[in-house]
Amino acid sequence: MRSKKANVVIALLAAIALWVYVAGETNPETKKTFRSIPIKYQNSQTLTDNNLALMSYSDTELSITVTGRRSEIGKITENDITATVDLAKAYAGPNTLSIDVTTPDGVEISRQSIRDVQVEVEKLISARKEIRVSYLGEFSDDSEPTTVSTDPDAITVSGAESLVEDVEYVRATVEGGALGDEEMVTTSKLVAVDQSGKEVENVTLSQKTATIVSVLYITKSVPLNLTITGESDEDFERTYEDPPSMITVKGPITALGETEQIEAYSIDISGLEEDTAIPIEPILPEGVVLTKAFENMQLVVKVKPIPKDNEKKLLVFGAEEITVEDLDPLLEAQINAGDITVELTGTKEQIDAIEKEDIVMVIRLGGLEVGTHTVDLEVSTGKPNNGVAVTPESVSVTLSEKTVQEQEEPATDTHVTDTPE
User: Fold this and answer.
1) DSSP strand pairing (29-42 vs 82-86)
2) With 97 labelled, which of 34, 86, 341, 344 sits at a CA distance of 20 to 30 A?
3) Is residue 23 part of a domain?
4) Are residues 330 and 376 in the same domain?
């Protein structure tokens, strides 16, 4: 017969086996997959201490499958799982770094979508970048949002060398719907952007916001007067496209009310020996500024050397050979000028082909009233040449009202009679 002790042991083992069986049936082992676990890149400060910066990385999230008892698996959420990459192990250039995944006790990782990431590390640099303001909203044709001040006007951008070099400027955005004729102060978030306006990620800004003072100005189009001298000389021919004759400015209505035209600083292009872009600088009244479309006006000058075998020809004209255009039909013009000399420069073949009748001299009198005016003399020829210069460059013209009889007679000649000096 079995002893009592043996029976007790057998009964205990049977109970344990029964418990294991029941537990396995009621709390079986199971699996669960988490598909969007974010990957955290840690210890970037170590890179900074080594004068390095993270430029790019291959992945931002991964999927894992965990195995465990149903009771344990049921408690787990994505927040209980961490995936980290230690940047302290990276060096300059391409790196392959392992992903460290941690899970709660009682479960195991049975599957992991990726185990490594590719990380690119570059030299750490910093650069000052200007802040530019972008206004959101729609505005009428006769108004434009305007930045009065930006504090600060530039900040430091730090990061991987290629990323910082991609940063064109730092953008501050202002909602324009609330703008009016009174200045408005806004605290705007700053974003580093490239030349196309796309955000440059993985760079650090020395501050995250800027204080912007803005106002909504009215706009006005007015004539722009610009004097250009020194077109050509014996060695070079200098040409350019006509600068804008009208520009649009903006400001408070009190400042714009008396602004009828804008003068620009004169530009002397003599001495230029290669193609050059020269800024056009309007002289703006107090409180008046340029609209965005006219902020960066330039005079693009094309320079062409004149061949050394050039010859010259001088042709002399009288005031009666000047053609008058745009004269008010109720006025008559008297040109106060003596001899006018036109100097032609070109090869022998070009010079020989140009005769006096090929030269056209014009003055334009549109918009002028009764009185004496100094008017630029325009000289051209339709035949090839390497330069045309006229002396003097302008003439004096006296405008007076026609008599009643003259107004009734039909005009028969577009030329006027000169009065010798």
Assistant:
1) parallel
2) 34
3) no
4) yes
Full-model pTM: 0.59
Structural domain contains residue 19: no
Last residue within a domain, chosen from 195, 218, 241: 218
138: left (phi over 0), alpha (psi -120 to 50) or beta: beta
Task: Specify whether 140 is located in the same domain as 165.
Answer: yes
Q: 377: domain range? A: 311-408
Residues 30-84 pLDDT 10s: 989 999 999 999 999 999 999 999 999 999 999 999 999 888 888 888 899 999 9
pLDDT tens per residue across span 78-97: 899 999 999 999 999 999 99
H/E element holding 187? strand 184-193
Burial class from Cβ neighbours inside 10 Å (0-12, 13-18, 19+) for residue 283 reads exposed
Whether residue 321 is found in the same domain as residue 402: yes
Q: Which of 284, 289, 248 is nearest to 264 (CA)?
A: 284
Reference 39, options 148, 139, 116, 104; nearest CA is 116
